[in-house]
Amino acid sequence: MADRCLSRIRNVRGVAPSHQLLGQRGPGLHPLRMMVHLRTNRKSRPFAQCRAMAESTPGVLPAAILFDCDGVLVDTEKDGHRVSFNETFRRKGLACHWDVEKYGELVKIGGGKERMTKYFSDSPNQQPWASLKTEAQQQEFVKELHLLKTDLFMKMIETGSLPLRPGVARLVDEAAASGVPMAVCSTSNERAVSTIVRVLLGADVANIMRVFAGDIVPKKKPDPAIYLLAAEELGVDASKCVVFEDSHIGVLAAKAAGMKCVVTKSGYTEDEDFDLADAVFPCIGEAADPHVSFSDLMMTSSLW
Question: What is the mean pLDDT of residues 122-150?
Fold first, then answer.
């Protein structure tokens, strides 16, 4: 019976993809319940009954849950990283300012150093590139800028200026209680990511949540290297890992690694292409209004 209930919320051909339906939410309808009603021509069992039956059926735990950081754990980009970059430019005497729209373009490039390099390279006859004649000089200068930017960003995190996104703490607690390994896989600086985990999720979580970030791999997202490294280091099967991402390049990286991928949209990624994602939600959601629960991440879940 549980299998029949689950079959009604699995992907079928001839209807909109699951990641689109999952991201839509009508009044009073949980996204998965909406899928039940949209995908069957016959009368469905109430969603709560289907989910209860599915949850009572033994499932296979995910091998690991891997979170992107920026936009997934915390919506950091517009009011965190962007502000820190601009303050860095000001302190270094650069006539640069990334407004919300411009940063929205740059954020599609994985990695802060890579964003600055692209931005400066587009105007090679202007400062700072005009006075930096070799690639080595340019790389060293960008590295110096990024170190200052990271210090400024970390101070913002330490003061609690940027809160966790809805439902993150709840899902992390549920996963920790189940014993499923967790990690953060990010293109951001490792110190910044570790600070977010320690300050916003707490010391207990920081002790069990691995951080793979920054230049730990030679190629950044959309390359799958960071997710494959996480699976290898955790000693788990990549195909049984669940990734939470918020961007198109993040989804490409997760799927190239052969992993399941759930998207929680963020401010800058609302309109990006998530066709390859297994599910798309506005956020994880707090206990009173959850979009995703730990039971949804079982390998036997209807999400997949």
Answer: 96
